[in-house]
Specification:
The complex is a heterotrimer of chains A (173), B (969) and C (454). Chain A is built from five helices and four strands. By secondary structure, chain A is of the alpha+beta class. Chains in contact: A-B, A-C, B-C.
């Protein structure tokens, strides 16, 4: 994408700017901040987050799979008289089933995060933006896509006058 | 030729044996090619020759080549070997001169396991630890393998020459300078040779020295009857037994047979097959029979003398004057009980008792009408050599002895200290010793001749009751040794006769019918039929009482009791790892002998366990660690013979302390007025049991016979079935189980030895035993009860319980231990990863772990292992399997014949060896099986029943048949 | 109490750049302080000792240890339980307190998690070393062997194997997920090509976009929500390793919670032991304040009391019941050959820490460290006590035995400590030891502008 990047020294003006653009109906906005800014959740709506559902599903699969694995191994595939206990003594299968469930869920959470976030991807175009390296440190960036139908460079000028601390960078410059 | 020179010198140093013509002869006969190739030999041929002979040095199993002789297998006629199938060959083990029938299990032509011979009167199928260990002696890699002269390898021909020149001399002077020293001899063939020898050289003399002497027994018989006799107690007929430090069930000739009868009467009430016997024991140091006695009275030797006189008086066997007012009340009670059971009472005394006591015992038995009822007298089985070692040493010191032949003996080590045998030996011009190991004596004689093991040659011997057995070789000699009869043949100037011909010649004359068929029959059965001795008709001399020496009054000093070690006896088998590591029945001690001392005495002398003490008596001084032994008489120290060997091999050398310095020819078993002082050193003894009482727990159940007979408990079945959350696995086929009678068990340890032999259990050594890592699959626990002065002593053999709900199985993460279809708790070595949780979770702690590669460290040659049992590697758990290899063998056989396994067809090794039949194994699904019958007794109980592990191995509680008239003791 | 509880969890006068400078740049500095080198050298030396001990173990067999029959378990198991317990502290702090939205955790969770990682590693090795045939440990994986035989799923040891596996893997993932944004920050501050590449690869292209942040928050929350029950389950299962057996002193229903309490106690103690000196050495007083120390101590006290309760139950129940084996074992613990380990544990885990009720003593860093160290030692004593005292005198007196550690036992213990320490020192050197983005998040916005450089 190509657009205008607004650099802020602080999260408050960033949020303001984002608000304004939203009021103008601009949708294609992305924010880059050193830490998660909760206020943006409302302003920069994202598609529904699948991760929790995925993790839950995997966990359940792990639980069932872990249980079946033990039941099959102990009762069907190679039943043995172990200390006079019944081959399919299900209470004994709970701990392992649980551990497998958690392991699956955790792994899914980890892998799922990277998948959905499109990582790993060591180089991202946005890194070319001058001064962007401070986005992970102490600067707050708002990037507006010029392709957005409601985009209007006049708004950007107005914004930069209102929020004095704002620095406007064309991107790619 | 070049390279030849160095090659040759190097070759000599490679194996000095090569210098031995006999050896080279053997070599050439093995490799005609080699002999054909005379010098000059080319390098190539030389190398071949070297390789071949080097191979032979290691592989002397081929032994000296001799004409193959047929031996007759016990069951099937000689036929082609069936791979993997066992073959059983009868022979006998000779212990201190007496034969005990044995059957050797052969695998692919090599003996791997020794079992008792059911047809032999001295075995009845049982085998004690010592005889079972003989198989390990056979394979001992440290056996003497060459004729030695002053410790250096020489050759048989040199000896032959030396003796040949002597013979000329003897033929002239009748062999005046010739002396032969042997152990106790019962071999008819050897005796015949000896007689011939003495006929040929009238002036020669034959002396005998047996370290575990029975001279007191003979002397006692002389005192009582004026003629020597052997006494054979009949425990099956005795309601009342009085044992005076008796060895009847532990080590006396025929002890296995006696123990069998003894055990039957001890469990009679348990199995409802008659009346239980009552046993009194009077002793200064605990014996096996004393341990299981109903009343055990601990007295010092002098007190025993008095008590015995008192009993003699009370039973009418001696003058009333002997009664002695100050005797404790029980003496009278015992005497009364004996008299009341006239004709069903028996008194037996051990060989360490004074001749006077033996005479008294004979008199009391006579007064009780025992002869012919509860005991038999027979003419002595062992031959009287006519002279003892004392005379010999006297002659040696006097310079009268030019040639001394020592047949199977080690007098330098075990002769009485006061004789100074070693010094006297130095004055003998030509001394020849014939023994299996290059021992202490071998170092001081002119010639040491390697003896063949009794499983490598032909011989014969008599059992305690006179029954003769032919000893067949079980394997071609593993070392180039010689047999005793060959030795004598050499002296007789008939060097070419073979052992076989000698034995056959002797018996050919005695065959009733066709010799060859009879010979075959004798060999097959293991005994020569109708050779047992008849009763000797003897009567107590009327004047015997007056002939008795005055009894000594109890002295104040310490008394040292010298006793043969339960397993090593007087030390000949000291290089045997099995025996060294087998816990002594009462002390649970391994790899050491100790000064056994009564707790009270120890307290008085401020001695604690493991304190090294110095004991001096007469001129002798010994140092060894002390061990507190409850039930030991006060001021009495018991020391075991057989330890402190200096020259025998890597296993036995320098183990324990030699106590022979305290042994005087006048009193072989006792040294009075000894002094003891603590040296300040400590030597921690390697015992296998660290806690000695039951800590108030319900482990060995006991009860009185009266209680048991009065109130009959409900059926055991009800008592055993406890509620369980788990479904019952029905063992549709066989359900193997075991019953152990604590009434019959005498704690002898034969079961442990049998298990070790059968199941390839490695020896771990002293250090590992001290770290609690011994490997025995069945142990015999020993608990003390009551006061330490005269405690109750309980034995309990503990193999794997094979629990139905086995705790060990549940905790194994890899399923390496689980139940098989017969309900056995099996251990899968291959699968074991060694978490050891199973051992932790076994309440009986019967699982043993290979912390190191013990089997690999074990010095025994690989051919000696039992091929039917896996040799376990490092890092795996192991335990009792109920001898599953035997179960499988029987199962396969029964499947092949399409029949079910008969009851008693399978005997576990422990059951088979047990002299008292305390252990019974069988199928619990078979309602008529012996094990079911045993378990039917109300006395049957499971160990740690409250844990509800539902063991397959159960015990019959121990009953005591006490005399109500006696409170103490 | 009041004063310190209202005290801020971060000292005033901090801003984004300041945080980056203090924490972030420590990683990029080429040199390391003397104390680091000293500690690292000792740790590496001990690690080599560990390698030696393991080498010899594999060559000679576990006979080199003091274990025997009946005491077939010894140091290896005690070490394992001890290490896994210590590990738990980190997980509790970062996972549980994340869920409870306790902001104070942000300053210490990275240190705690990293400690967890290396402790868990040390723990994970022990059960393998402890095997008689370590080469075959993989037979515990749920894969049928050539005979179609499976592992034995009813065995607590197998449960334990799965628990460790899940715990170690999850800990690593959780730890790395939390680390990601800070790695990106270090990448962006890095000046040399090598560091840029190194951290650039680790950062996997993190930009801090709103999309990433939201996913990250969700993922981190989910993992935290999974880690909390996981760590509890792991210790419950470790407890079952013992209570699954029928031995007196092991076969107890309270073992699972008992082990969790002990684990968390040792975890907090270890975190204190690390945090107290580190905040001084790295000048982190501003972020890891008195308040943090105070909170950690409070939790230490809580766990100490919970553990005291378990000890009490363990000591008293046998005497309510009628099982004489249980009683005998309880008495052995009080008076037997290993009584010192029991009383040592009671003293160091329960009695001594109570001193910290006194506010004045809490301020004393040296004392706090000493007590925390005492707890760490005390917890090892508890583990070895639990293992041996039930084994060396159990049911049949005839089978009673003794146990004493050998040189190799001790070398394995200290060696494993060295190994964990070495790993932690490397973490200090190469990774941001405080969760920077979390600190930034809790900075009051107003303060961002101040000290705005460049």
């Amino acid at each position: 994408m190509s657009g205008i990047a607004l650099e802020f020294p602080d999260e408050t003006p960033l949020v303001q700017a984002a608000q304004r653009l939203r009021e103008r109906g601009v949708r294609a906005i992305e924010a880059y901040t050193p830490y998660p800014v909760e206020a943006l959740d409302a302003l920069l709506p994202l598609p529904r987050n699948l991760l929790p559902a995925l993790v839950f599903a995997t966990g359940m699969l792990g639980l069932a799979g872990g249980f079946l694995l033990q039941w099959y191994g102990a009762a069907i595939s190679y039943p043995m008289n172990i200390g006079g206990r019944p081959p399919a003594s299900w209470p004994a299968f709970i701990p392992i089933a649980f551990e497998i469930a958690v392991l699956c869920a955790v792994t899914m959470g980890f892998v799922g995060f990277f998948a959905l976030a499109g990582l790993p991807k060591p180089y991202q175009p946005i890194h070319a933006l001058p001064g962007f390296e401070r986005a992970t440190q102490d600067r707050f960036f708002l990037v507006v896509d010029v392709a957005d139908p409601h985009f209007d460079s006049a708004d950007i000028d107005r914004l930069s006058k209102e929020i004095t601390s704002c620095r406007v960078v064309a991107w790619p410059s | 030729m070049t390279g030849m020179g160095p090659a040759v010198t190097w070759w000599r140093s490679l194996a000095e044996q090569a210098g031995d013509p006999a050896y080279l002869a053997q070599l050439t006969s093995e490799f005609p090619a080699a002999s054909a190739s005379g010098v000059p030999v080319d390098r190539r041929r030389m190398l071949q020759l070297m390789a071949a002979s080097a191979a032979l040095t290691g592989l002397s199993g081929c032994g000296p080549s001799q004409a193959p002789e047929d031996i007759v297998p016990r069951v099937e006629p000689l036929s082609g070997e069936i791979a993997g199938a066992a073959r059983y060959v009868a022979t006998a083990v000779v212990q201190e001169g007496y034969a005990t029938g044995a059957i050797l299990q052969h695998r692919m032509g090599r003996p791997v396991k020794l079992e008792g011979n059911p047809d032999h009167p001295a075995s009845l199928g049982a085998a004690d630890a010592t005889m079972q260990a003989a198989i390990l002696d056979l394979y001992d890699p440290e056996r003497s393998a060459a004729v030695l002269s002053a410790g250096r390898v020489t050759d048989w021909n040199k000896l032959a020459l030396a003796l040949a020149s002597q013979r000329q001399q003897w033929l002239k002077d009748g062999g005046a300078g010739l002396r032969i020293l042997s152990g106790r001899v019962t071999s008819p063939t050897l005796l015949a040779q000896m007689t011939a020898l003495l006929k040929q050289y009238p002036a020669a003399r034959w002396h005998s020295w047996e370290p575990s002497s029975r001279d007191n027994v003979t002397a006692g018989a002389m005192l009582a009857f004026g003629t020597p006799v052997d006494t054979l107690p009949q425990f099956d007929k005795a309601d009342i037994v009085l044992a005076i430090e008796s060895d009847a069930v532990s080590s006396a000739p025929g002890h296995l047979a006696f123990a069998r009868a003894f055990g039957v009467r001890r469990r009679a009430a348990e199995t409802g097959t008659g009346a239980m016997s009552r046993v009194y024991a009077i002793e200064a140091t605990p014996t096996l029979i004393g341990a299981v006695a109903d009343h055990r009275f601990v007295l010092r030797p002098t007190e025993i003398d008095l008590a015995l006189r008192s009993i003699a008086a009370a039973t009418g066997a001696g003058p009333a004057a002997w009664r002695g007012g100050e005797q404790p009340a029980w003496v009278g009670a015992v005497a009364r009980d004996l008299v009341e059971h006239r004709g069903a009472a028996l008194v037996h005394a051990g060989p360490e008792q004074t001749p006077a006591n033996h005479a008294l015992v004979h008199a009391i038995n006579a007064a009780l009408g025992a002869p012919g009822k509860t005991l038999r007298y027979i003419a002595p089985v062992a031959v009287d050599a006519g002279a003892g070692i004392a005379d010999l040493v006297a002659d040696m010191s006097a310079g009268k002895v030019e040639t001394l032949i020592v047949l199977e003996g080690n007098p330098v080590y075990d002769a009485p200290a006061d004789l100074g045998f070693a010094d006297a030996l130095a004055r003998v011009a030509l001394s020849v010793q014939f023994a299996t190991h290059a021992d202490e004596t071998a170092r001081r004689v002119t010639f040491h001749v390697p003896a063949l093991h009794l499983f490598e040659t032909w011989s014969d011997a008599r059992a305690f009751d006179g029954t003769a057995s032919i000893l067949q070789p079980q394997i071609r000699p593993l070392v180039p040794g010689h047999s005793a009869s060959e030795m004598l043949a050499l002296l007789l100037g008939t060097p070419d006769v073979t052992a076989l011909s000698l034995v056959q010649d002797y018996w050919r004359a005695r065959a009733a019918g066709n010799f060859d068929t009879e010979w075959a029959g004798w060999l097959r059965k293991g005994i020569v039929t109708n050779t047992d001795a008849d009763d000797a008709d003897v009567a107590v001399r009327t004047d015997f009482a007056s002939a008795l020496p005055k009894p000594q009054m109890p002295g104040s000093g310490l008394t040292v009791l010298l006793r043969a070690d339960p397993f090593l006896r007087s030390g000949a088998q000291a290089n045997n790892g099995w025996l060294q590591e087998l816990p002594r029945p009462l002390t649970r001690l391994t790899w050491d002998n100790a000064a056994l001392i009564a707790p009270a005495t120890a307290q008085r002398l401020a001695i604690a366990d493991d304190d090294v003490v110095e004991i001096a008596a007469g001129k002798g001084v010994v140092r060894l660690p002390a061990m507190l032994l409850p039930g030991q008489a006060e001021n009495c120290l018991t020391l075991s013979l057989g330890y402190g060997r200096t020259a025998i091999g890597g296993v036995g050398a320098d183990i324990g302390s030699d106590v022979n310095p305290l042994r005087m020819s006048a009193a072989l078993w006792q040294a009075d007025d000894a002094t003891l002082r603590a040296t300040g050193d400590r030597l921690v003894l390697a015992t296998t049991q660290h806690h000695q009482d039951m800590a108030g727990r319900d482990i060995v159940r006991t009860g009185s016979l009266d209680e048991f007979l009065s109130e009959h408990q409900p059926s055991p079945a009800a008592a055993h079935e406890r509620p369980s959350l788990y479904p019952q696995y029905a063992d549709t086929g066989n359900a193997w189980g075991m019953a152990i009678s604590l009434n019959s068990c005498i704690g002898c340890g034969a079961c442990t030895a049998a298990c070790q032999a059968e199941n390839n259990i490695p020896v771990v050594g002293r250090e590992e035993v001290m770290r609690g890592r011994w490997m025995h699959w069945i142990r015999v626990d020993r608990y003390w009860g009551g006061d330490a002065a005269a405690p109750g002593i309980l034995f309990q053999p503990v193999p794997c319980m094979h629990c139905e709900d086995a705790p060990c199985e549940v905790v194994c993460p890899v399923g390496a231990t689980n139940h098989d279809s017969d309900g056995l708790n099996v251990m899968v070595y291959n699968r074991c990863v060694g978490t050891r949780f199973c051992s932790n979770n076994c309440p009986y702690k019967v699982r043993r772990f290979n912390f190191f590669g013990y089997s690999g460290r074990d010095k025994r040659p690989s051919i000696s292992w039992n091929p039917d049992v896996t040799v376990r590697g490092r890092g795996v758990m192991e335990k009792c399997t109920y001898c599953i290899q035997r179960i499988r063998e029987a199962k396969i056989a029964s499947d092949r014949d399409d029949r079910s396994i008969a009851d008693g067809e399978i005997k576990t090794a422990c059951q088979q060896a047990c002299p008292t039949e305390a252990i019974v194994f069988g199928d619990l699904n078979d309602p008529k099986s012996a094990v079911r019958r045993r378990k039917a007794t109300p006395l049957d109980y499971s160990l740690l029943e409250e844990l509800n592990t539902r063991p397959r191995t159960t015990y019959a509680a121990r009953l005591t048949n006490r005399n109500p008239a006696i409170v103490e003791g | 109490m009041a004063s310190i509880d209202q005290a801020p969890i971060m000292q005033p006068g901090q801003d984004l750049a300041a945080i980056d400078r203090t924490v972030g740049d420590a990683v990029l500095h080429p040199g390391q302080p003397l104390w680091w080198w000293a500690g690292f050298t000792v740790a590496v030396a001990l690690t080599l000792g560990f390698v030696l001990a393991v080498e010899y173990l594999f060559v000679a067999g576990i006979g080199i240890w003091g274990i025997d029959i009946p005491v077939a378990w010894g140091f290896a198991i005690a070490n394992y339980v001890w290490w896994i317990g210590i590990a738990s502290g980190g997980t509790i702090i970062s996972a549980l307190f994340y869920l409870t939205q306790s902001q104070w955790r942000s300053a210490v969770n990275r240190i705690a998690e990293s400690m967890t990682l290396f402790a868990a590693a040390a723990a994970g090795i022990m059960p393998i070393l402890h095997l008689g045939r370590p080469g075959f440990f993989y037979w515990l994986f749920p894969i049928p062997n050539t005979m179609g035989l499976w592992p034995q799923f009813k065995s607590p040891l197998l449960w334990d194997f799965f628990a460790i596996l899940a715990y170690v893997i999850s800990s690593i993932l959780f730890w790395f997920l939390g680390l990601l944004p800070d790695l990106a920050m270090v990448r962006d501050r890095a000046t040399t090509r090598r560091t840029q590449l190194f951290y650039g690869i680790l950062a996997m292209g993190w930009t801090g976009s709103h999309t990433q942040w939201r996913l990250h928050k969700t993922a981190y929350g989910l993992l935290a929500a999974l880690m909390a029950p996981l760590v509890v389950s792991v210790h419950s299962i470790v407890g079952l390793d013992f209570s699954g057996g029928l031995l007196p002193g092991w076969h107890s229903t309270q073992f699972s919670p008992f082990f969790v309490f002990g684990a968390v106690l040792s975890g907090f103690a270890m975190v204190l032991l690390i945090v107290v000196p580190l905040r001084r050495l790295y000048r982190l007083e501003a972020f890891i304040t008195e308040r943090h120390i105070d909170l950690l101590i409070t939790f230490l006290l809580l766990c100490s009391l919970l553990l005291a309760y378990s000890y009490l139950i363990d000591a008293l129940l046998p005497f309510y019941g009628s099982d004489h084996f249980e009683r005998a074992t309880a008495l052995h613990r009080f008076t037997g050959a290993w009584a010192w380990s029991f009383w040592g544990a009671v003293t160091l885990n329960v009695l001594v820490p109570q001193m910290l009720w006194l506010r004045s003593l809490r301020g004393n860093a040296w004392l706090v460290c000493l007590i925390a160290f005492g707890v760490v030692v005390g917890m090892w004593l508890e583990r070895i006590m639990l293992v041996t005292s039930s084994l060396y005198e159990d049911f049949l007196p005839s089978a009673w035995g003794h146990f004493a550690g050998t040189f190799w036992d001790w070398l394995t213990l200290f060696g494993s400590a060295g190994m964990a320490a070495a790993g932690f020192f490397l973490f200090l050197r190469y990774l941001p030891i405080v969760a920077i983005f979390e600190l930034k998040e809790i900075l009051p916005p107003s303060t961002h502008r101040s000290g705005r450089g460049a």
